[in-house]
């Protein structure tokens, strides 16, 4: 897989002296099932406490769209998103919740967290 982190841009946290939570909800995430090639649809919820920098939204949108043609399991893509964002943003805390639409009668929520404070 290509280095998708190159798509992500950041900007300085305007209030690094305090903890505050940023929540971004992206309801149009798509990737492909690696077994069937069928599209998978999800809502990706990014929740984080920034440290020195924040993720820029337009670049984050393009980053998420870059998975559109990737055959990748739910668990792998959710962990990949967290890993890439932690690498770029170095947050105090970050959580990704991926709510995948029902497929075959089963819906899946994948939740991954990073906590620098622990």
């Amino acid at each position: 897989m290509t280095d998708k982190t190159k798509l992500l841009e950041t900007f300085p946290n305007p209030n690094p002296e305090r903890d505050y939570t940023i929540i971004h909800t992206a309801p149009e995430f798509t990737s492909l099932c690696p077994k069937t090639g069928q599209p998978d649809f999800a809502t990706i919820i990014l929740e984080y406490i920034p440290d020195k920098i924040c993720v820029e939204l337009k670049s984050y949108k393009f980053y998420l769209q870059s998975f559109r043609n990737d055959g990748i399991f739910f668990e792998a893509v959710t962990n990949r998103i967290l890993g890439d964002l932690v690498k770029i943003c170095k947050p105090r805390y970050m959580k990704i919740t991926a709510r995948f639409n029902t497929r075959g009668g089963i819906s899946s929520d994948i939740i991954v967290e990073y906590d620098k404070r622990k």
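The first helix runs from residue 57 to 65. Strands lie at 10-12, 22-32, 39-49, 53-55, 93-103, 106-115.
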